[in-house]
Amino acid sequence: MPMKSLILIAAMLTVRPAFAAEATASPPSPDTPLTEQQRAFMKWRFGMFLHFNIGTFADRDWASGYEDPGLFNPAKLDCGQWADAAKAAGMTYMVLTVKHTEGITLYDSAFTTHDVTLFKNFRGGRGDIVREFVDACRSRGLKVGLYYCFPGDYSDEAHHNAPPPNMPNLHGLPIEAAGDYVGFMKHQLGEMLTRYGPIDLLWIDQYANKYTGDRWPEIQAYVRELQPRCILLANNAHNLMDSDVLGYEFPWKGELPPPGNTLPSEVCDVIQTGQRWFWTPVKQASDLQSAEQILKTLTACTERNANYLLDVPPDRDGLISGPHLERLREVGALLAKRGTP
Question: At the fourth CATH level, which superfamily is domain 10-50+75-94+128-135+177-338?
Fold first, then answer.
């Protein structure tokens, strides 16, 4: 997930935050002209965020990495179904959480055993969800986005996910990363950006963290070297030095780009209320945003030249299902009636 404050705002269960950017100053001007990729990104408009990992099965947004890997068993996993649901809702791109706070990549990494091979109940520990995701996107004409979470303080007693006794805090990365977070992350970013062909969007969470933030320019340069045409988005960056795109994590601050914005921007949001990014059962109507509210926010984003990235998490079977899928269909029907975003 984009790293959220875990203070759940009770009002979000029934009321969306006001668009806090209404009274903000004019947006910053880029120091250099926009690239072809940045200009193209501004036309993507509507995308699907997919939070999916051990947190789906452990019922937590911030997994620590010490959860039982045997819990992970999406028996019906179908990335094609995700992509079909996105297309039907009028979306043009998808972003998958390849590695979240648990530190487990959804592919087999050469630099750690803390990866998809832990999930012995899923295809015998030999799956590659990233490959399935990328192929599903491309076969349906959707842009491919991969998410990677940088280190932070995600595990403690307050969040009910502290490390077991006498075990180290992983800070969102495998034990092999200890002592050289940047070197390890570059290894894994290298895998993501060389195994799967051209990647349209690399979505980085916590780029300015206290552990590696001062070396962000080095990481940017490395990504550019591997895939110069890939859009590099740093979550919550509000300048075009740190990120190709201005990022707004809407559930956190309720902010949109200012009116009149002309710079490439993205607003990420949750279909589930209560700031929940990983799947949770829907028990009452207020657990999901209404289709009308989603369309309202999408319209506001479009008016401000921002893409709207809506998190629609797969369930424990590995499908977008039930009320989540029905809500997406409602959004698609409203968009079809109104026209393109």
Answer: Glycosidases (3.20.20.80)
